[in-house]
Amino acid sequence: MVQVTITAVSKTPSGRGGFPLTIDVSPNATALTVRKAIVAKFPKFKTTRQRITVKGEKKNLVDETKLSEVLGEKKEWELQVKDLGPQVSWRTVFLVEYVGPLIIHPLFYYFPKFWYGKDVQHSALQKYVFAFVMLHFVKRELETVFVHRFSNATMPWFNIVKNSTHYHLLSGALLAADVYRPKFSATSPYIVGTIRNNEKFLWIGAGVWAFAELSNLHTHLTVRALRPAGSRKRGIPYGYGFSLVSFPNYFFETIAWATICVMTGSVGASIFTVVAVAQMAIWAIKKHKNYKKEFGKEYPRNRKAMIPFIL
């Protein structure tokens, strides 16, 4: 048996009483063993709230990590635990944030008189955009339930507020309020006699949007196939979209929203797209660096993070 001393680096649900905590574990113990031992001592300190690190280091030890691999053959090990606060599952966060636009857009689309003070005869463009938005977020919800496999089970509960604000306000209220208003209606000078009312233009836009959405789905399925259910295992993705960038899903989503911007000329759509693309770029760059660090020389050198040949 090996003796493990655990110190608390922040206030825990039970206060600091009981720490440092000393437990005896087998040489093959994992980080999950330690987490469960803490829960046994402090039932309110759930495993998902615990950030376990080697004393003096910052890297979180995932559940499967064998302590002997990071602490060596010592007879006494020292670890630290930090309380991450109340948690909520990633799947729940995704479901809540994506459902916002699915509720908000129909409210603006079907009840224009309430928002604009008069009825709106929807143009073909507005009908296309409404269909695009609804299909996009229905797809997102279905992917959350049936496709995505998450590296971490939970995230801080406040993220559900932060993430939902982005989707509910920008792709929800802001976009809906702008594109379903009278300016884009069937009788508006902005639409009548312009390319925005041209059937061929609308069909081309719909084709590009559908291509981007289906390509985005394909990349999600490719990544899913790399990770067995219940595993944190990561592999190098190859195939459609991955020959040029590490995260083609972000690239294809950018194309989908940019298509809506071009078709409508909507300020609301443009604001949401700029913010969304900037956020995806931040995620892509960070994850791209992690890929290169994790896989080293095995990782394809010619790949960019998100936009082919550029970023």
Automatic annotation (TrEMBL):
Keywords: Lipid biosynthesis, Lipid metabolism, Membrane, Oxidoreductase, Transmembrane, Transmembrane helix
Location of the 3-oxo-5-alpha-steroid 4-dehydrogenase C-terminal domain: 154-311
Entry-linked InterPro entries: 3-oxo-5_a-steroid_4-DH_C, SRD5A/TECR
Pfam families per UniProt: Steroid_dh
Membrane topology: Multi-pass membrane protein
Molecular function via GO: oxidoreductase activity, acting on the CH-CH group of donors
A cellular component term, taken from the record's GO annotations: membrane
Any one of the GO BP annotations: very long-chain fatty acid biosynthetic process
Membrane-crossing residue ranges in chain numbering: 255-285
Cell location: Membrane
Family assignment from sequence similarity: Belongs to the steroid 5-alpha reductase family.
Protein name: 3-oxo-5-alpha-steroid 4-dehydrogenase C-terminal domain-containing protein
Source species taxonomy: Eukaryota, Fungi, Dikarya, Basidiomycota, Agaricomycotina
